[in-house]
Design a protein that fits this description.
By secondary structure, this protein is of the alpha/beta class. Helix content is 27%, strand content 22%. α1 packs parallel to α10.
């Protein structure tokens, strides 16, 4: 059987860590405020420590993002950074700055180094440069086509290569966007991107001599001029796996545990299916699993070379999915499940549980809405403030009940 690549998931919160483990990720990457691209990280040092311990107990790896481009004054804080690295004990550091790489090699010589997508690696020559500098893995830029990857793999057989397979795409070059810095003062490289590429724009024509401004008439398709669809290589996953990458990366450290678990689940099932029977692999059913997620629509982006015309959504930056996250199971007893809601849920609606390591979900109808706090029947229950509902065992078939555990996800139609 051909060796399958590692499936790498984002761990932007401790719940995302736990959910990624439950749904089959092989490794998780995480960052800390001021330590990586995630200036607005939702996870603390202690939570990362807990996540790493849970991952290691499950036989998974954790890579700590250290991919900021450091200024001189930031190197003065490196002794404190060393303490954090030693305390957390990750399996590798993800870096982008050559100066940071040199510092890691000097102060943590045994720590494996992964080169971030922020380094914009697009060629075999660049891979060899980073390999000679001490890297054990290179994350290739999302602008690398499949044919280019095949060539890089052939030219660089002795270093691990990682590619993105799913997640949000930057309008600019692999995260090197200057719009956010320039217009809002929020640096994209530090994870504070204001996502100006998702904004709706009006085009104004200014007459230079008089300064008179005239709006240019446009229809709705011309408004979201920089809004890329989300990357999804599931339709081409067989070609991806055949080309022997070492790691497949899912974008999303700012995403919810529902998103992380659902994407990991789809790719885990697909990779395992391909490994069992590559000749008969069909991605359609796994695309159905991804289509229940809120997205901006999907594109294979640079897989075949320059992005096709349909890679951008000029009409809207809103989700194109017909589904919502329903909730996450937070507790299970012999007689009932507690489901913490992510969207308003009404009596009579159907929800579908996403069962780990199973392609098929399990749909049940909610004849009543039982509030978890008051135990009273309600016509509906809103999300937020940890609002939860009770699902009695009698509403769930035995074969489904036995597969449900805390952190199992559920979705529903909008």
């Amino acid at each position: 059987m051909k060796k399958m690549p590692e499936l790498l998931a984002p761990g932007g919160t401790l719940d995302a860590f736990k959910t990624a483990i439950l749904y089959g990720a092989d490794a998780i990457y995480a960052g800390l405020p001021g330590f990586s691209m995630r200036a607005r990280a939702k996870i603390t040092t202690e939570e990362v420590k807990t996540g790493i311990e849970l991952a290691h107990e499950a036989g998974k790896k954790v890579y700590l993002a250290f991919n900021l481009f450091a200024h001189d004054h930031e190197f003065a804080n490196m002794p404190r950074v060393s303490e954090i690295i030693n305390y957390l004990n990750p399996d590798a550091l993800i870096v982008a700055d050559p100066g940071v790489l040199m510092w890691v090699r000097e102060h943590h010589p045994d720590m494996p180094i992964h080169i971030s997508t922020q380094a914009n690696i697009c060629s075999a020559a660049s891979v060899k440069f980073w390999q000679n500098a001490g890297a054990s893995l290179c994350v290739l830029a999302r602008e690398v086509s499949h044919n280019e990857f095949v060539n890089i793999r052939r030219e660089c057989p002795d270093i691990k290569l990682e590619i993105f397979v799913h997640g949000a795409m930057c309008m600019s070059y692999s995260g090197r966007c200057l719009l956010s810095n320039f217009i809002t003062g929020r640096p994209s490289n530090r994870g504070a991107c204001a996502q100006l590429c998702r904004w709706k724009y009006d085009v104004i024509l200014r007459e230079c001599e008089t300064g008179i401004e005239m709006p240019i008439q446009e229809d709705e398709r011309g408004a979201y001029i920089m809004n890329s669809k989300d990357l999804c290589l599931m339709p081409r996953l067989a070609e991806v796996l055949e080309s022997s990458p070492d790691s497949l990366k899912i974008e999303g450290r700012n995403r919810s545990e529902y998103y992380v678990g659902s994407v990991v689940h789809a790719y885990r099932c697909a990779i395992d299916d391909y490994a069992r029977d590559p000749e008969h692999f069909e991605p359609a059913k796994y695309m159905q699993m991804l289509n229940v997620l809120e997205s901006r629509g999907y594109t294979t982006a640079f897989f075949d070379g320059p992005v096709p015309p349909d890679a951008h959504n000029y009409e809207s930056a809103r989700s194109s999915s017909e589904y919502h996250a329903a909730g996450v199971v937070t507790n299970k007893t012999d007689s009932e499940i507690t489901l913490e809601l992510r969207n308003e849920t009404k009596a009579g609606e159907e929800i579908t549980f996403v069962l780990p390591h199973s392609v098929d979900g399990a749909t049940i109808k909610l004849p009543r809405i039982i509030d978890a706090k008051s135990r009273q029947d309600l016509p509906k229950q809103s999300a937020g403030q940890h609002n939860s509902i009770i699902i009695p065992r009698a509403w769930v078939a035995d074969e489904v009940w036995n597969k449900i555990s805390p952190l199992v996800l559920a979705y529903k139609h909008k």
